[in-house]
Design brief:
This protein is an alpha/beta fold. The chain is built from six helices and six strands. It has one domain (35-182): Glycogen Phosphorylase B (Rossmann fold). The mean pLDDT is 89.
Amino acid sequence: MKIFEQTNKWLNINSYNNSSMLSFNGQFIQGEKILIGIGSSGESRKWDTENFVSLCNNINDIKKFKFILLGGPQEKKQSEEILSRLKSLDIMSLCQYEVYETFKYIKNSLFYIGTDSAFMHLSAALNVRTFALYGDTPVNYSEYSKNIIPIMPEGFENITHGSNAMHLIKPDHVFSKIYKYII
């Protein structure tokens, strides 16, 4: 956990609890749900629509789940395209929801798979196993949570700002990382 060691050193802190959890006491949506995080704060951190479609189809071929698309209003067009391409699946978009309204869908989901985004961090904080796609932000951004499992492009040992490698993360590679959690 290099980032915490360095921060502790800078701030002259001897020990630091790096767990980060949110409490949600409201009712949550039941059922086996997989969260699909399509949101991102920049184009270099987005994963292509075709990749999400392929991944959802691969998962659905193994077992039927409810898919929940997470993103902001700026991902509305991408979510609509994904919805239209996956009409035969049990899928819905929360891109029009306020963030707090999404908690009842996120809580107790099987897992999150998607971009390094606010919804990735929220999923992890709500104690959901979180597979984060890293192609243009440092993987150490996820070191604070045991719930975040980074996925980088095959062959990469490190990702930094400016790597511009999201397009190199292939759906089959991602599927191989999550497979044991869907069977």
